[in-house]
Amino acid sequence: MRHTISVLVANEFGVLSRISGLFSGRGFNIESLCVAETLDPKLSRMTIITTGDDRVIEQITKQLNKLVSVLKVHDFTGEEFINRELVLIKVQVTHECRAEILGIVEIFRAKVIDVSPKSYTIEITGDEEKIRAMTELLRPFGIKEIVRTGRIAMPRTPKSK
Q: pTM for the complete prediction?
């Protein structure tokens, strides 16, 4: 099962290396990793996407909590949370297909951020399904390159009743 784990860490030298080393040293794979400073510049938040059964994830969580620089570990699995990813897609264009590609961009609320005579670079933000759907629609035109940020996540605010 795929898990989205949020880790609040001290923003200091070597933390990323220690955490990635913990995963690789125990044979755990990191599918996606995104790290950035929080509102407090002394802290960073890591969003880690990994796969494993409950026993494996429990082991990962325990090992992360043992690291001195780790302040909080939270597995979002089974909870309501918001996740997004930023993707840049460079797609081939011809005079004949420009309007069709722009239509796809508009439908997905994406943006063309760079234009050349032979390509568009498109920026899309969304969840995994939205990005996959747009990529599949653009594939027949000839995708030259894709760059992804990795997912970020945060819990949903409970709805008041």
A: 0.84
